[in-house]
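Thread: "does anyone have the structure for this chain?"

Original post by V.I.:
We have the sequence but no experimental structure in hand. Need at least a predicted one for the grant figures.
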Amino acid sequence: MRALYSLALWIAQPFLRRKLAKRSVDEPGYGVAVEERFGRYTSAPVSGQELIVWVHAVSLGETRTAALLIAGLRERLPGMRLLLTHGTATGRAEGTTLLKTGDMQVWQPWDTPGAVQRFLTHFKPSLCILMETEVWPNLVALSQQNGVPLVLANARMSEKSRRQAARLGWLSRPAMAALSAVWAQTEADADRLRQLGATVQGVFGNLKFDAAPDAAKLATGRAWRARTASPVALFTSSREGEEIVWLKALRDSTPFRASAQAQQAQGTTNSIAVGVQWMVVPRHPQRFEAVAALIEQQGFTVSRRRNWQDGPPVVDPLNTIWLGDSLGEIPMYYGLSDVALLGGSFEPLGGQNLIEAAACGCPVIMGPNTFNFLQAAELAQAAGAAIRVADLSEAVAKTGDLLGNPTDQATMTLAALGLSRTHRGALEKTVTAVTVLLDQQGVHGL
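Reply from O.Q.:
Generated one for you, tokens below.
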């Protein structure tokens, strides 16, 4: 059955090339080193006498989490050489910041036997750490055949993903069973992974709790907030389909309608009204332009981060929306904000990571769909660091209520900071488990 799967992927290669070419128009990163995806490299092959720790972090979020683990492993294994792979352009761009002299970074090989074998022959990894969810049948099978231990770290598995994988059990079960180790985030994740055939060696918690936000960026955001008259609400990591519903909810909200009526009566559109200053940071950078256009189509003015000099300008908060069209500044945006709406949770997309918001002391309002980060969402809600609502209209209304009550907002801020401190520890457990496994396997290069 894996042979049929491999044949299908081999046939699909021209379509992958076409997809990459099309996507590279909007995201040039997808046009970089395309042949690497098919196991063809311009660098010299690795000798095989070094400790090569291969970390696969498919996208931006996984790469940021991998940064913690990589730093911990460098301390414990000072002689290691990092091999970093990705599947998305944003992940690869973020990954470049993690490289040191001698490290290597390439695309994840397309999961055909030929591409994977060429990758393994060229780089000769000592160990592979797959971050969170990425388990590919040929990657696992050929790594096992080549004597490369594969582990799934910070592993998570939603019920939706489990059902999807179970329908392809002839592929997923052998791949899961062949993993050398699985370290799950929660007991629920561990149970779902076991149902798919994985042997779970530990439940370590979520590595993201061990992340410390960039102190300088957080301080910048807080300094800008101190100069802003209005309370600031952030729609963080918004996804396609959510922004239009949110913008319409803003237009229908009482503060906006009252301001519009007052300005119409005064015959002006330039008065500065007292209200919540909204900001949106789209999850995917290729959508910055589309979201800017959408905001203007709904009758709002856009103030873009890329045009700010020393912080956001003074604007009418009820008529102007800030657009966070930059990369790597999320701690700054959280520092600037008094509350954040959680993108991806208002459509059936599973939600985005709310742990970073908590670490920055930013309370969260989330929608009904948080299955990708279920435990973190439940912990945040139980701790009083997050509020769950039914939809974006309720989220906008709840934002106004919260920001109109400084005592409640301050209580949630303290709860968010406490949540982050309470659940640390997964990093130390994971680093220790990796080093123990390397020792047990007698991996070369130690």
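V.I.: this helps a lot. Residues 12-205+425-441 form a domain with the Rossmann fold fold (CATH 3.40.50.11720).
O.Q.: and The chain has 19 helices and 14 strands.
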